[in-house]
Specification:
The complex is a heterodimer.
Chain A (H helix, E strand, L loop, with lengths): L1 H5 L2 H7 L4 H10 L1 H32 L10 H6 L2 H34 L2 H12 L6 H12 L4 H8 L13 H25 L3 H9 L4 H29 L3 H6 L7 H10 L4 H37 L1
Helix pairs in contact in A: 4-15, 6-10, 6-12, 10-12, 11-12, 12-15, 14-15
Chain B lengths: L1 H40 L7 E5 L3 H19 L2 E5 L3 H10 L6 E5 H9 L29 E13 L11 H5 L8 E4 L8 H7 L12 H12 L2 E5 L4 H7 L5 E5 L4 H5 L4 E16 L7 H11 L2 H10 L3 E2 L10 H5 L5 H6 L1 E2 L2 H20 L1
Parallel strand pairs in B: 1-2, 1-3, 5-6, 5-7, 8-10
Antiparallel strand pairs in B: 3-8, 4-7, 4-8, 4-9
Helix pairs in contact in B: 2-11, 4-14, 6-7
Classes of the chains: A mainly alpha, B alpha/beta.
């Protein structure tokens, strides 16, 4: 969902620093440029029809009153009462999920970088394969694993863990377990790529200068993989915002997320305006996430520059 | 996201399959359209065809086996089937050329069809198996006629509650004496189960409608804390009960039959069952009325109704059918004389009028 949002924005940013209107005209008159623009036409038309138009019609729907005319009623409705609770729950679950999948993904990716290539491939497969199984089968799988009489709870009861069995399904814990398992491949793949790029020589150098393992990790390794961590967590968060299937399967009514609410409004209540308003809010939240990513990157660069100076 | 993508893919595959199916059947329908007109001008209808809409799946298979095939054998009229949804049917009827001659659907949808003026008024003089045969009056509507009962009942684990059986919805609600988790149906699956709350609170079976919404939601509040999951697919209650996630749940009758046969300690409780019915209606714009009435009438023969019930656990609406069924089969059918008395019919008119309001309220109630 995030990728196509970014795609059309980038060329616009790239052409913007064309020095003034005169420079722009000169650049457009070039033969190569004209040829380039001609080549771009199909893509532009494609995006206009299938991307820009639907987004604008959604925007229009979201500010259209029931008897026509302009209104912000749908936004007001989306931002109060149970609808607001759902929005907040969505943000909370997304944050919890990205945090958890960051921690687990970090450990997993780190472990994989230390494995031999063959084993690393196998572990990757284990991480990714569950996502090719149908949602229904996975639901039953989760019930067998996490239910009151599931594998996990039976084991905990067998070990006489105090408080067992725990309720791990149909509440927020269930949802976060489910969404984390779905998000894990993204974080693991992102972090793995970054970790593979870390120069082991730097670690060795830190050790040779007398840094302990903890200091090496904190002062050398963590800053090197920090961009990956930021990317992974923001990506996770944004993907989670629009999440639908897993929360519906593994949560209760209190874990309703915005996507499920939109589905409900369209399919059950035939309420397209309200659904559009929720969609636009979701889109804005996604943009906010991307903006945050940019800010983090800028801050990181600034710090590095200062460090270099 | 991965989830969503896979589902979208599955969905698209489903859509394309349905579209392909619709295309094939529309071709078939075109074919029958021409052959039909040729027939009416030519010889007697030995190669006639009727196109029936049903919801497909196991229900569609059962109809094929217990109804369409015997009908074709006897009359020589071939039965073709299409599976399209409510909105598609309505659109086709409004365009004046439906691909289907007969609709098999739930009576609640037929109320909406009749309101939209999409179905023909039924001529009961042409249905001799419907007249004075004891079919309940509420299934003999002006624009639709009932065919098979289905419904929601209580189900419980026989090894829970220390051997006690929940005998009514009041017991289901009594989470003190019969402690254990419960499950009820989600509003996404069907009309919500407000009637069960009112029955639990002591409203008699025949005084349910119009539903007292405030009272129903107040009573639902009492059981809310014990409800572990609101199930949204028909298979889920069986899984929840089978895995001991809950000890009692509402369930669409018939969905546990296989599990019970496999020896799982599960049972239905028919006391306070909410019945609905599938039925027939004739779309406006069909030029195959004779065959449509023939098939409706055929489906209401006691022996045909009984045979269907043996194939699929949906109950006959014709009382005489139960005389042809064994005690054992009959006891597990919602329309048997005994079960008819302990359950009630969902008031489809009331639900169509109030569905939107109740749905919205239910959604808000569940989330708080």
């Amino acid at each position: 969902m995030a990728a196509p949002v970014l795609a059309p924005a980038e060329p616009a940013v790239a052409t913007a620093p064309g020095s003034g209107p005169g420079g722009l005209r000169r650049r457009l008159s070039g033969r190569r440029t004209r040829f380039g623009l001609l080549n771009a036409t199909p893509v532009v038309v494609y995006l206009l029809v299938l991307f820009i138009y639907p987004i604008f019609s959604t925007l229009l729907l979201s500010v259209e009153g029931e008897d026509g005319g302009f209104t912000l009623h749908w936004y007001a409705d989306a931002l109060q009462g149970t609808n607001l609770d759902i929005l907040l729950a969505t943000l909370r679950i997304s944050a919890e999920t990205s945090l958890l999948s960051l921690v687990i993904g970090f450990l997993l990716a780190y472990w994989i970088t230390r494995l031999r290539p063959l084993w690393a491939g196998l572990v990757m497969l284990v991480v990714v394969v569950p996502h090719f199984i149908s949602a229904l089968v996975r639901t039953y799988g989760w019930i067998i694993l996490l239910g009151d009489h599931g594998l996990v709870n039976e084991a905990l009861v067998g070990l006489h863990v105090p408080g067992a069995p725990f309720q791990l399904l149909y509440n927020e814990i269930g949802v976060v377990i489910g969404t984390t398992s779905v998000m894990l491949p993204y974080t693991v793949l992102l972090l793995y790529a970054v970790m593979r790029g870390v120069d082991r020589g730097l670690i060795a150098a830190a050790a040779s200068l007398g840094a302990g393992r903890l200091v090496t990790f904190r002062r050398v390794y963590l800053p090197l993989v920090a961009p990956g961590l930021v990317n992974a967590s923001v990506l996770c968060f944004i993907l989670c915002l629009g999440y639908y299937v897993t929360p519906a399967l593994m949560g209760g009514p209190k874990q309703t997320m915005v996507a499920a609410l939109i589905e409900e409004q369209v399919m059950k209540n035939n309420q397209w305006n309200g659904a559009s308003a929720h969609g636009v809010i979701l889109l804005l939240l996604t943009f906010a996430g991307l903006l945050l990513l940019q800010l983090f990157k800028k801050a990181g660069e600034a710090r590095r520059n200062r460090g270099a100076a | 996201m991965k989830d969503v993508r896979i589902d979208r893919r599955l969905f698209l595959r489903g859509v394309s399959a349905v579209a392909a199916g619709a295309a094939v059947s529309s071709l078939a329908a075109c074919g029958t359209g021409t052959s039909r007109s040729a027939d009416s001008s030519g010889t007697a209808g030995s190669s006639k065809t009727i196109v029936v809409r049903n919801s497909g799946g196991a229900y569609g298979d059962a109809n094929q086996k217990a109804l369409y095939e015997p009908f074709s054998k006897e009359t020589g009229i071939e039965v073709k089937v299409i599976n399209i949804n409510y909105a598609q049917m309505l659109a086709q009827i409004e365009q004046g050329r439906p691909q289907f001659d007969l609709i098999d659907n739930s009576m609640i949808d037929f109320v909406k069809f009749a309101k939209a003026g999409a179905t023909e008024q039924l001529d009961y003089d042409r249905l001799k198996n419907a007249k004075n045969t004891g079919i309940p009056q509420n299934l003999l509507a002006t624009h639709a006629i009932g065919k098979n009962y289905w419904g929601s009942v209580m189900a419980y684990r026989t090894d829970a509650f220390g051997g006690r059986k929940p005998g009514s919805w009041a017991d289901f609600w009594d989470t003190g004496a019969l402690s254990g988790n419960r499950a009820l149906q989600h509003v996404d699956a069907d009309i919500p189960e407000l009637e069960f709350a009112l029955l639990a609170d002591g409203v008699p079976l025949d005084k349910l409608y119009p539903l007292d919404l405030d009272r129903a939601f107040r009573v639902l509040d009492q059981v809310k804390g014990s409800i572990k999951k609101y199930w949204d697919t028909g298979a889920l209650p069986g899984v929840l009960l089978g895995r001991r996630e809950v000890d009692a749940s509402s369930v669409w009758h018939g969905r546990l039959d296989d599990l019970i046969k496999q020896g799982q300690p599960l049972a239905y409780q028919f006391q306070g069952a909410r019945r609905q019915s599938n039925g027939w209606a004739v779309p406006k714009g069909t030029n195959n009325l004779d065959a449509a009435y023939q098939l409706i009438d055929f489906s209401l023969r006691p022996e045909v109704q009984a045979h269907f019930a043996e194939v699929y656990p949906m109950a006959p609406v014709v009382p005489a059918a139960y005389e042809k069924l064994s005690e054992e089969v009959s006891a597990n059918l919602l329309g048997s004389p005994k079960n008819l008395a302990t359950g009630f019919d969902a008031d489809v008119e009331w639900w169509v009028a109030n569905d939107d309001e109740v749905t919205k309220r239910w959604q808000e109630w569940a989330r708080v």
